[in-house]
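In response to the reviewer comment on reproducibility (Comment 2.3), we provide here a single inverse folding case reported in full, input and output, so that an independent group could reproduce the run without further information from us. The structure tokens appear first.
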């Protein structure tokens, strides 16, 4: 029997990557085989991102490129956020697309592919139900994306927050939490596969369980995970929402060595007036108090946040408040974006009045300020030891990440010597750059003193 083949391109965030992996699992279960070469695949799938204009442009470019190279009999399917929001517009922008599958129905990928393959004269097919069914689980499909020794595990999808600039609720619908027992079962499976780092993701992880009637749902989930998967070394939490990092959550993180002392909390701005226009939490005092509590409970806490510059109405004084804020808080990691005007969002009536050159100038100033802070933070680790998850090696060097570094968005640790990939080993830090560290392995010293090289993090 001829094996059916597919090629899948996944764009955007880690949450999209999980959906892509889930679609791949369904196709493989139905007799398809994933291949790397698009020219040899029967089915081409692009899981798109449609969050902001640059992401949309990248998605359209990927679709057009594949469409231009399609051979007779090949099918091209556009899936994901772009298609959920723009539907038929995707066909107009990328002629040659045969099928449209919204992000809320990734689980119907086999149905869409089968329908197109059986059609004698295939016309573009649309699968875009309005119901917010993003949280639906499919038996036998693990909603996770494994990348080496790390795995992203989705705990919820959708968002109920009112952020004025964000199109996610338009794309995904409201928050739908996955059942805790399902998450625990999938985490156990990932543990059996040898996963060393489990990364919990959602549009808002701190909202986990709200729709299930749970209070402090994320804290409850974390406690259950530490019991369910004791063999997973690191548990990392991403995408915390300001105002919902509770005292109990802080206590749970501090009480369990598996849970990394790493907080990713996108704040978006620091001036109360800007935050109000964004429809974001504007109580900056809460931020100071909460981060103070976390740093007291977790002395080695690594803080990551995200900011938007050039939001409509942002004055020079408001921007200066943001600069002063990062000077005061001293984040380990900062991601910055210039404001992207999005039709249909609550910020649409505000327009896009700040000139692009002003946005870019503010972006440059903020990143320059943060780079000096990041360098100083990194330099403080020189002479100390960090546990590093080795992700690659060759030509006499190894690359890895410490607890301070989430995959793809934070820094790396460059280590002398070729270390075993997938292991977590102690590294003596010898050099610091703006984003990355360098060091030498010291596993022999840890082993000779009876200390485990597989600890959450070590400071010496």
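Designed residues, in position order:
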């Amino acid at each position: 029997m001829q094996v059916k083949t597919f090629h899948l391109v996944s764009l955007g965030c880690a949450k999209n990557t999980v959906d892509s992996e889930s679609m791949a699992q369904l196709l493989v279960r139905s007799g398809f085989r994933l291949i790397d070469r698009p020219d040899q695949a029967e089915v081409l799938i692009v899981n798109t991102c449609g969050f902001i204009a640059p992401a949309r442009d990248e998605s359209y470019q990927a679709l057009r490129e594949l469409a231009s190279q399609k051979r007779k009999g090949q099918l091209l399917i556009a899936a994901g956020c772009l298609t959920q929001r723009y539907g038929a517009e995707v066909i107009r922008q990328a002629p040659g697309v045969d099928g449209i599958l919204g992000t809320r129905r990734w689980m119907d990928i086999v149905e869409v592919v089968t329908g197109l393959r059986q059609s004698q004269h295939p016309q573009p097919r649309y699968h875009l139900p309005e119901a917010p069914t993003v949280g639906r689980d499919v038996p036998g499909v693990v909603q996770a994306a494994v990348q080496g020794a790390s795995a992203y595990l989705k705990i919820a999808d959708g968002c109920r927050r009112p952020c004025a600039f964000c199109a996610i609720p338009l794309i995904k619908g409201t928050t739908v939490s996955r059942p805790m027992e399902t998450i625990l079962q999938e985490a156990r499976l990932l543990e059996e596969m040898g996963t060393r780092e489990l990364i919990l993701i959602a549009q808002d992880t701190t909202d986990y369980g709200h729709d299930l009637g749970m209070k402090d749902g994320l804290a409850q989930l974390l406690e259950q995970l530490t019991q369910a998967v004791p063999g997973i070394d690191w548990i990392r939490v991403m995408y915390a929402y300001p105002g919902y990092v509770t005292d109990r959550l802080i206590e749970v993180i501090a009480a369990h060595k598996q849970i990394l002392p790493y907080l990713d909390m996108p704040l978006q701005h620091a001036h109360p007036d800007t935050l109000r226009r964004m429809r974001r939490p504007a109580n900056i005092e809460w931020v100071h108090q909460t981060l103070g509590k976390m740093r007291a409970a977790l002395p080695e806490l690594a803080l990551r946040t995200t900011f938007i510059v050039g939001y409509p109405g942002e004055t020079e004084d408001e921007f200066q408040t943001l600069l002063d804020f990062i000077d005061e808080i001293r984040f380990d990691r900062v991601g910055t974006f210039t404001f992207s005007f999005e039709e249909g969002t609550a910020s649409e009536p505000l327009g896009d009045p700040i000139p692009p050159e002003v946005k870019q100038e503010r972006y440059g100033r903020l990143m320059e300020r943060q780079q000096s802070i990041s360098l100083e933070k990194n330099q403080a680790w020189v002479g100390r030891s960090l546990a590093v998850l080795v992700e690659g090696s060759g030509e006499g060097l190894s690359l890895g990440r410490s607890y301070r570094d989430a995959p793809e968005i934070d820094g790396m640790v460059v280590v002398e010597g070729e270390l075993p990939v997938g292991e977590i080993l102690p590294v003596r830090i010898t050099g610091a750059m703006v984003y990355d560290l360098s060091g030498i392995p010291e596993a022999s010293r840890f082993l000779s003193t009876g200390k485990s090289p597989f600890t959450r993090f070590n400071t010496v």
